[in-house]
Design brief:
alpha/beta; 434 Repressor (Amino-terminal Domain); Endonuclease, Chain A; 2 domains; 7-stranded mixed sheet; 51% helix
Length: 295
């Protein structure tokens, strides 16, 4: 995945290192601590390596076990504060793209291949998994300072990610797209680019395992559109994750309570979404508007 998620963030690494140091100072090995906490030893390893976000009760039990073994007093609150910081961390676009656009896209594709469910909400542009090559290229040109060759490589990698549409996760791949995102057009587009993109969406509406919902302005909305985000339900040995796009980077959310908030927000918006034939008719209407405007 992107550097935001294919390696532990700074806050997670710091938290894991302090948990490991606490265990070592108490003279406990991983297997012994795992037995005391009632978990498998690999879970201890993942926590110490910053690969999982520990629940608050686990931190308290960890501190209690180490204190009992060492005969000292340990305070769990500083570790809980670190956990709060690790539960939602900002990562800059500079860091995300440091290895190139293609590397970022390949990493995202790797996580999508593991995901058990994917939910995407987009309020500004068409989601990457649904984009045409021309649309993706224009986005990269406008949003990055990469060379033409790097942009082409990024577009190719983004298109490779679209394999997920034909081999969707076990619990589906869901998209919510606002009308603002559907109507967004980059400078220089004579209508050809957006018309091709709308045609692409029409072709994808009936794919099995793929749920595309549209949020027209004429339909009263049960929640504001706030900001784009992607929610990944991952296997049990990994933390679920929400990635929130901002102007200067991404916020990576791993805290279960915060993820539940995003799930609730998504479900509220989905209750007003147009799908199936209603979505198809709406896309045809938008396509006709584009074609009339550019005659």
């Amino acid at each position: 995945m992107s550097p935001a998620t294919d390696e532990p963030t700074a806050a997670l690494r710091n938290l894991g290192a302090q948990l490991k140091d606490l265990r070592a100072r108490a003279g406990l090995d991983q297997a012994t601590l795992a037995s005391v906490l009632g978990v498998a030893q690999p879970q201890i390893s993942r926590l110490e390596n910053g690969r999982r976000l520990p629940p608050v009760p686990v931190i308290r039990e960890w501190v209690r076990a180490c204190a009992a073994a060492d005969g000292s007093e340990f305070d769990a609150e500083p570790l809980i504060a670190l956990r709060e910081a690790a539960g939602g961390e900002r990562v800059s676009w500079q860091r995300i793209h440091r290895n190139g656009l293609a590397a970022d896209q390949h990493s995202l594709g790797g996580v999508e291949a593991q995901a058990q469910e994917i939910r995407v909400f987009q309020s500004s542009v068409i989601p990457g998994q649904l984009q045409t090559a021309s649309y993706a290229q224009r986005l990269f040109e406008l949003g990055t300072s990469k060379t033409p060759d790097e942009v082409v490589a990024g577009v190719q990698a983004r298109l490779e990610r679209q394999a997920i549409l034909y081999h969707p996760p076990e619990h589906g791949c869901r998209f919510l797209i606002s009308e603002a995102a559907l109507r967004w057009r980059p400078t220089g587009d004579d209508g050809t680019l957006i018309a091709a993109q709308l045609d692409r969406l029409l072709a994808l509406l009936d794919l099995p395992g793929i749920d595309i919902g549209l949020l027209p302005w004429e339909e009263p909305q049960p929640a504001t559109h706030r900001h784009p985000f992607v929610l990944y339900r991952l296997p049990d040995d990994q933390d679920d994750m929400v990635i929130v796009e901002t102007i200067d980077g991404e916020n990576v959310v791993r805290d279960a309570d915060l993820i539940a908030l995003y799930v609730s927000w998504y479900d509220r918006l989905a209750s007003a979404a147009w799908t199936g034939q209603r979505a198809r008719d709406f896309l045809h209407r938008l396509l006709e508007e584009v074609q009339i405007t550019n005659r």
